[in-house]
Specification:
Length: 316
Amino acid sequence: MMAMSLAAAAQDIHLTAPEALSGIFGSISLVCWIFVLVPQLIENYKQGSAEAVSLAFIVVWFVGDIANLIGAIWAGLVPTVILIAVYFCFSDLALITQCVYYNVKNARKERKLSTRSNGTYDSEDEPLLSRRDSDNTGLPGSHRRKSSAASRLHRESVNRRDSLASIVEEETGGREWLKNTLCVVGILTVGTGAWAIAWSSGVWKPVPVVTDPQPMPIGAEILGYGSAVCYLGARIPQIIKNYRDKSCEGLSLLFFMLSLTGNLTYGAGILFHSTDKEYFLTNLPWLIGSLGTMVEDVTIFAQFRIYGDQSPFAVE
């Protein structure tokens, strides 16, 4: 009975198209941010490495989330927003911890391998190597002919591997884009469905636009702009790292697709709610932090496209 009365009350509220779109985009954005770091956590686990991830990227993002959390508490925002901000901080810590763990673990492995490679060959191998070298010097020109033949066979083998790797990479890349696109479509569906259920059950109601809002505490506003600066600057170390490495291998493409979708829907949710000047200025730090980073996400997508075509078996 209570659920029915809530649903009836929800239906009595006049819902305009902009209010509905604002609610839908807000719900989609929330789902995106809940799952945004999961693909990179899984990718690091599968690779057994976090070398592709710029630790500065995640740390600066974490600082931005902390500033966002403190600003939300200071501004007295609703408990749901504060809880989501807390969740973001714990998610960042999980990814930072994973990256540090793999970096330390793999650094130790590299030191061990380096120590072993500096050792000498076993004495049993040395005569075999010596005999092999002496056999090559027995006939004039034999070493040159064998080297030439071996070099030709090596080039042919590398070319075959290069062609095969290009085909496999192209097919795998196509499947990866398709899988990630389907995941994003699933996120859009879940977010829209969650909003529809919340609206029909009366849990979600359109928030009236306050024409004369209370001024935000100056400290909370400063933290809001500080978090926006952190979000804008966080991706720069990752973009630089990708450029220096000429590779995006080990990065989760879905991670950045969810980030772009979350930022786009978050900004759209704010703008569809109201374009009133006071409301716009109040939310300006969060708009800058969300919509501004979309340019950097697009840059990383371009790097995925450019560096993804480079084969490790390419012959110069």
